[in-house]
């Protein structure tokens, strides 16, 4: 578990130290007008998650046959290669292709969770999952700050080389430090043919959680293609833009790290439904004022609030799915959820790039506010729908 914590930390830090500066890196690969730059940035961000959404179920099936450690090694080694080559990209199309390839072979963090869940004693699973989460979130927290400092001094290619180095470390740690006692499960023909949703009681709620995961990812990641460009505009193209972008990118991670344990305990006390709805309301309250942001400090503060909302959203959606899903179907339900999260990570940046290119960077925040309102409507509808059914049964 400690080896996987290091691997999760390396993955989170490596990815986050390079991604916030991807638009700035793309701007050095050609003389692009604003609309074209935002379009390429959106494609470069989204294409990774698009390939991940398509390929993820296939890797899941293979993990059931071969175990999770081979999947961890596959993800770490390929990401070592693709991250390093991305730093060597001669033009934007090579960069986009490498991002596509990286998404198709990624999945280190998800497989780390799956391996620990399958190996750890049931009465210690909560603590183990919490420990793994701090590794990934901790990496995402310091990654943008380190990457921003390095990019501001040495240029935008260096963080990608460091991402490759971090994944090489993760590969070695996983190879020598991770042990898996894997026994391929024996399934009957009926189990294979049965739908993953066959035994789900509150079907509308579970689907609402899956859709909610997609919309949360779309809203949260929508700013990624334009974050450094918007910070550049707020700073009037002067000062260490890369470092400031790194701080802005790190704000949600700081908030999530602080608030996630408390919000998890609150959900156990008052119920996950209330925490989820409160998180959606808080998210909308945070995104809307970003339209009127005039300084980087204001943007940092609002991004911190978004991080608190995120801490109340994604973990709660997974908790609700776990409570409402039979044990034998949890893995398949979660694979659907992961694919929908990846789809959200495609939709958000692409919509943001289109909005920013046609209108302005600020209008992206109005778009994310609309996504949050749609999400809230879906969740309320699902609870009302299944709530009526449960009352009829009683």
Automatic annotation (TrEMBL):
Gene3D superfamilies in the cross-refs: MFS general substrate transporter like domains (1.20.1250.20)
Membrane topology: Multi-pass membrane protein
A GO MF label: transmembrane transporter activity
Recorded GO CC terms: plasma membrane
PROSITE patterns: MFS (PS50850)
Domain (Major facilitator superfamily (MFS) profile) ranges: 1-387
Transmembrane portions of the chain: 7-26, 38-59, 71-98, 158-178, 199-220, 240-263, 275-298, 342-359, 365-383
Species per Swiss-Prot/TrEMBL record: Paucilactobacillus suebicus DSM 5007 = KCTC 3549
Full protein name: Major facilitator superfamily protein
Localization: Cell membrane
Alphabetized Pfam families for the sequence: MFS_1
Keywords linked to the UniProt accession: Cell membrane, Membrane, Transmembrane, Transmembrane helix, Transport
């Amino acid at each position: 578990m400690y080896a996987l914590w290091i691997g999760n930390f390396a993955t989170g830090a490596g990815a986050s130290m390079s991604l916030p500066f991807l638009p700035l890196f793309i701007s050095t690969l050609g003389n692009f007008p604003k609309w074209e730059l935002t379009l390429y940035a959106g494609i470069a961000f989204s294409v990774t998650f698009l390939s991940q959404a398509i390929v993820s179920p296939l890797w899941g099936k293979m993990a059931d046959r071969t175990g999770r450690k081979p999947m961890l090694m596959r993800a770490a080694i390929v990401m070592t290669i693709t991250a390093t080559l991305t730093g060597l990209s001669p033009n934007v199309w090579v960069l986009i292709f490498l991002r596509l390839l990286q998404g198709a072979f990624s999945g280190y963090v998800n497989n780390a969770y799956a391996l620990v869940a399958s190996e750890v004693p049931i009465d210690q699973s909560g603590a183990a999952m919490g420990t793994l989460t701090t590794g990934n979130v901790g990496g995402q927290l310091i990654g943008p700050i380190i990457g921003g400092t390095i990019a501001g001094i040495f240029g935008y290619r260096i963080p990608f080389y460091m991402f490759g180095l971090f994944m090489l470390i993760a590969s070695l740690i996983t190879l020598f430090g991770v042990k898996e006692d894997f026994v391929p499960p024996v399934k009957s023909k009926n189990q294979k043919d049965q739908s993953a949703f066959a035994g789900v009681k509150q079907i509308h709620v579970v689907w609402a959680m899956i859709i909610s995961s997609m919309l949360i990812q779309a809203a949260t990641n929508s700013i990624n293609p334009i974050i450094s460009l918007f910070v550049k505009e707020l700073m009037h193209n002067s000062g260490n833009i890369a470092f400031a972008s790194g701080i802005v990118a790190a704000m949600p991670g700081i908030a999530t790290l602080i608030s996630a344990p408390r919000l998890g305990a609150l959900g156990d006390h008052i119920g996950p439904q209330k925490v989820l709805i409160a998180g959606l309301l808080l998210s909308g309250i945070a995104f809307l004022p970003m339209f009127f942001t005039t300084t980087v400090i204001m943007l940092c503060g609002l991004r911190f609030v978004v991080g608190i909302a995120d801490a109340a959203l994604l973990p709660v959606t997974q908790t609700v799915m776990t409570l409402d899903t039979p044990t034998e179907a949890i893995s398949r339900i979660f694979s659907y959820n992961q694919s929908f999260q990846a789809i959200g990570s495609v939709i958000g940046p692409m919509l943001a790039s289109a909005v920013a290119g046609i209108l302005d960077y600020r209008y992206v925040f109005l778009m994310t506010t609309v996504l949050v309102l749609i999400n809230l409507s879906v969740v309320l509808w699902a609870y009302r729908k299944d709530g009526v059914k449960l009352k009829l049964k009683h």
